[in-house]
Amino acid sequence: MDKYFExxxxxxxxxCSGIGRGVVLELWRLGANVVALSHxxxxxxxxxxxxxxxxxxxxxxxxxDRTRQVVDSLGVFHGLVNCAGVGLMEPFLECKPTTFDASxxxxxxxxxxxxxxxxxxxxxxxxxGSIVSISSQASKAGFHDHVAYSASKGAVDAMTRVMAVELGxxxxxxxxxxxxxxxxxxxxxxxxxxxKAKQMMSKxxxxxxxxxxxxxxxxxxxxxxxxxxxxxxxxxxxGGFLAx
Length: 244
Prior knowledge:
By secondary structure, the chain is of the alpha/beta class. Helix content is about 45%, strand content about 15%. One of its GO terms (molecular function) is carbonyl reductase (NADPH) activity.
């Protein structure tokens, strides 16, 4: 797939850390004109310093109007990857409104906002594009302390299906990926406790957590023309966790 995405312009939110950074770098390697969007100014600067040809945009996706202005100013895209997200963990009985609202604002509402802007321009320019959103296995299964996170990701799955229905007639595909624990820098820190990690891994049929590149590869596939007949899918990348 060398230079497979040449002449394709793709926006990646949450694009300077974790899965998002992995997607940005792989798209760059494959020749895409890629834009990394994040609120992390320092990490964006570092990314731009290392890869000058990667375009960056800094905005807090919780700000609806400002995010809309920034994304609109970036022009037309052939693809969008919604990676920006937050994991705020509190048990059901203690979950605060601020925790719930922040989870929905970043994990769900921002996808609605950014995808609207990008999809409208795809339609106006007759681009048969692809939108991929990051969901989670937590949208499909119950976990302790995940009430806000799971609700936000369940909404991503539902929104993906509606996007597929409404955008499909325009030739725009919308899909989601639903990873298990992914060994980003943050993931390694959160799951450093071996007792906790082994308990989770015992439920994954392949007996391990996902590496970043394994999620990136699935996203790249869904963005590509090789997935032209895949629309409205929520793809588990979970080593078989949801099969049990």
